Amino acid sequence: MSKIIATAAIKGAYKIYKQAEEDLTQALESAGADTEIHFPDTAYHLPLILAMTGLKVDKVGQLQDVIGIAKDLLPPVPSETVWLPYLGHALDAGIATLLAEETIEALKPVLGKPLVNDGIWLGPTDDVILRKQGIKLVDGSMPGFAACVGAMPTNEEAVKLANQLREKNILVFMAGSTDGRSMAEQLAEEGVQMGWDTYLVPYGKDITAAVHALGFAARSAMTFGGITPGDIDAAREILLYNKNRVFAFVLALGEVDDEKYATAAGAINFGFPVIADTDIPQILPTGVCTYEHVVSQIPHEEMVQKAIEVRGVKIQITEIDLPVCYGAAFEGERIRKEDVAVEFGSKYSTCFELAIMKDFDEVTDGKIEIIGPTFDEVEEGGAMPLGIVVEVAGKKMQKDFEPILERQIHHLVNYAKGVMHIGQRDIAWIRVSKAAKEKGFTLEHLGRVFHDKLLSDYPAIVDKVQVKIYTEQAKVDELIEMARKSYAERDERVAGMTDESVDVFYTCTLCQSFAPDHLCIITPQRLGLCGAYNWLDGRASYEINPTGHNQPVEKGDVVDAEKGIWEGVNKVVYEKSHQHLENFSAYSMMEHPMTSCGCFECIVALLPLANGVMIVNREFGEMTPCGMKFSTLAGTVGGGQQVPGFIGIGKQYIASKKFISADGGFKRIVWMPKELKEMIRGRLEALAAEAGEEGFIDKIADESVGLTEEEVVAHLEKVGHPALTMDPMF
Amino acid sequence: MATETDTKVTKQKSIDKAAEELIAKAERDSVTIAFSRVQTQKGCAFGKAGTCCRMCVMGPCRINPKDPESARGICGATADTIVARNLARMVAAGTAAHSDHGREVAHQLKLTAKGELKPFCVADKAKLVKVAAEFGITPEGKTTEQLAEALADAASAEFGKQDGKLTFLARAPEKRQKLWAKLGIEPRGVDREVVELMHRTAIGVDQDYESLMVSSLRCGMADGWGGSMIGTELTDIMLGTPSPVRTKVNLGVLKEDQVNVIVHGHEPALSAMVVQAAKDDEMIKLSESVGAKGINIAGMCCTGNEVLMRNKVPIAGNFLHQELAIVTGAVEAMVVDVQCVMSSLPEVAGCYHTKIITTSRKAKIRGAEHIDFEEGDAYEVAKKILRLAIENYKNRDAEAVEIPDEKMDLVAGFSHETINYMLGGQFRASYRPLNDAIMAPNRIRGVAGVVGCNNARYTQDAGHIAMVKELIANDVLVVQTGCGAVASAKAGLLTPEAIEMAGPGLREVCEAVGIPPVLHAGSCVDNSRILVALCEMVREGGLGEDISDLPVAGAAPEWMSEKAMAIGFYVVASGVFTVFGPPHPVGGGPGVSELIFKGFEEMTGGMFANEEDPVAAAHLMIDHINKKRKALGI
Fold first, then answer.
1. Is-contact B489 B410, C-beta < 8 A?
2. Which residue from A minimizes the CA distance to B427?
3. Is the ipTM of this complex over 0.90?
């Protein structure tokens, strides 16, 4: 019930207002209206008051206007029943509280109370420190500040909390007390050194000292945001600057009394949420703050993590702790058979990778689990099964982004020196070199890489990452089915779209590290040859990172609709292939076909005698009717060259209406491995039925018919395959 | 549910206990009221289907609605032409009503500025400056009165403008403005659109039903973005912009020991004065001199809503309560202005002691006493009215008095300005929390405007209440005006405690803000406030670029007035899906039906639907909201 909070905050505002009024009356009587008041070394007068009201207060008498404004802001306390809206009122009460608190703090020296209570307290921040520290807050090098109000149950826990915050470079402000204890005192008792240099700033033991944290925030907006204070619009700008740029939050430690609620209501105006350890009511709907306004009952060990989540604080991970070198420089490195310590996938074992979105509560950020044996148990050069499941949570994460994150696994693994990654999804293939193993590289490190890099590379969508790596055959077999379901769902989403229905395609230049002149043109009816990126993924990827590997391509004027040639596409292909390719046809494998990097799921090869094509998938290790095994074919097709008669494709493209449609379409398929046939049977059957070719898929030869072109032709004649009667392919 | 199944009304008359009690009393007292008259009025089948044409006296021509192709009017008009002309005339009449109200407000603001309508003054200077700026009028070098006069002149000019477009259209999202321009439905001047539509519907002019319907959209726009909006904004400037108030509703607000005066109709200026004069010591003493313990003012219909929103005046009921108030035997005077005032009032009053006092030169009723309110000293007019009422107290027959116990708390006053403030306070006022709550997966699904009348053919309030309850249970925030708002108020839905009936997501937001799940935004001209709120939602960002992108829907579950049809047309023209309970009188025009229930969506992004079952209607709205959510990817 937020009403309890609003009621408490409004009551607290009245109490603090009353104290300010009394202090002012006393100051006017004892010192007089002309007595000067100021905070040390600041050009911002009383900064919070300046920011919110535009008033430049330097004398006691001027505070009367401030108190007048605060009084006008004080709203009625919500009634027990039939209450009137209270959120706006509570926020106004919060501003009134801050105005009153700064009044109280400013009058302390006049009334003979020291502004700085005793040895440990620092009082308001001067402009020199503001400039030095504040800039870090707004340029992002310091992720945020925590205003800790109250005290922890024990000194030990106080130290732990302070350290947790500092580990993340979060500045710690401390004010107020709980049962006469304050967090700063607890730290002092434990001999913790405090001050701006140690990121631990004790403002004052009174709750009113908390206003210095907000005065600091307000000055940041005026100094770095260049906002000139004045009227209420300027005040709003200052508050919004903080909401959008200064990632601060309040940690309410211990019992929250009315005055603390009132102060918190002031902080919420800045977009600073409150995270409490006690069982106070919550305010979860968002809007004044970016995310939740008040969350409560958070265990101490989780407070920092929760605060980061609720405030949307982005922690920069600068260095990944790995035993091997890591970086783009190692991406293109190959690991030869004789150097392999262990490998996963390809024809040697089962291997898959999956990135999936989870709810916030389901993900413990940074948790890496290895489920099953480590690769130490495998003899050198051997293989073991592997299932990589990367679970991601994020406020702005969408299911559409899963494939993009998943596709990052490719280069994230490759960046590690001595580790190689090829393929994707359930045909991923990873090799770890003997050298990497000797240096101590483990699967745990792989998980660490995914966590750290996804968080730092995709801050806009990823807030939490946990990684599960499975190495038990049974578990991998079980989960691969789940993964395949996920892949199928992703493929399904794009199934209804056509190339004609969109104006833009997307490039994919992810693999230019291996094949510098290659690019994929991803259309709704022709997904990337790796099978991992369809058109929607291209769009989502562009949405996440507008300067990334997937760029929109305006189709432009049609040059040849049948072959799939467009002016706009040709222009981009020319540019992105570094002037290597001048023409590109989307629907032909005979004329300017799309090039391949090496990640293709399948290769389509011309069988001249059969007047058709064969398709072989990566998993098929035997000889094929074109006289080459997949691995040999891959060497011919890959590397970014246009090789008429050969293309690398994603499996889903086989059942597309645009599958080599300029060359005769699916009816050209005369041979493919059984396994591949079964994988795409449903969709290919539907496509064939629509074209009046029922039973077509069973006319396609496979390894049981033969592995030579002659055997295939004999079979085609026997079953009356349509390719035989079609126009010659070239 | 309370749908009209046959012409004889045998169903429950009202879900309001106070109404039931007084309907029974009327019967005992042998008084004829709307609830009884509806039994004898069958309802014309041709009229209902829209196929009766009275545009000339060669007819009236009628076409069998079940077989529209079977005949033509004498002039050759097809069923669709006849249906479209009749519907267009409803829109023109409704637009004329709201707009003449708006014109009156502009006139009153001018008189106020010139000191010729005492003791009114400008109540909301900030809003005056803001609205004047929209008309390009700057406050520099002008007194408040001069600024108000300049605005009143500019607003009045909107009615007679011949070219260009209405000023308030600029409030709409850019995309919507462009669409209006493309469709050619930007109103030029309010009067011009009404006159042109009347011309088009005369015999032998516009015979193309589509052309007539597009013109009707433009005419409706002249209501919502013209007359009504001027009415709302200038009333706020003159009488104050509403902010949340707590008061009571239903006939139980009448007091047995006080002089009861009901203010009824739609134009609140004089009524606001009556409220003020009732607090005058002279008046109170006078009432005590006749043995009463003071003067109790209660509202009725939209005048009631206006004084409720601004002056916390309790409201005695909605449209079908007006006669019942008299039947209590406890009302000394009913002061009426314009619109939705039943002709029967003097007749019903004749059975008791109530005095019916008409105050507008435009709206007189035989048998009523007329006290003219036009200019001069409004306070004196108000006192004159109160004196009449007080004098009449002695004529009250204690034996004939029966005031029902029913009265309910309510919170009202949700103007656009209030919503903006309540979501962020003075410093952080914005629609952001609302947009955020809609964009979040499990909070507010969308927003529905449930507006419109009572209709004696349908169980009073049943449609409103069933629909509103279903909507809020499905996490749809409901905004209401007019008689719909009063219906919900009587059922307790305007109390913040009504969050108990809301879905968990809506409830969470209502708790955070402290609002009821159903927001009372004012009178029926105040539907323009809803337009402003929709524009603000688009402007705040995250919910698309046009009103038609928003997950919102509208409904009039118990409509009866032509004004409701005009509202429907401007809401649809603004891009909002709108469900009417009682069917549109278009059943005999298949082309018109296809157009307004389907074709409009392709044009404007909004369209009409008919559904008499309020729960099913609520689900049409929810489905539409879900569709919009999906399109937004939320």
1. yes
2. A236
3. yes
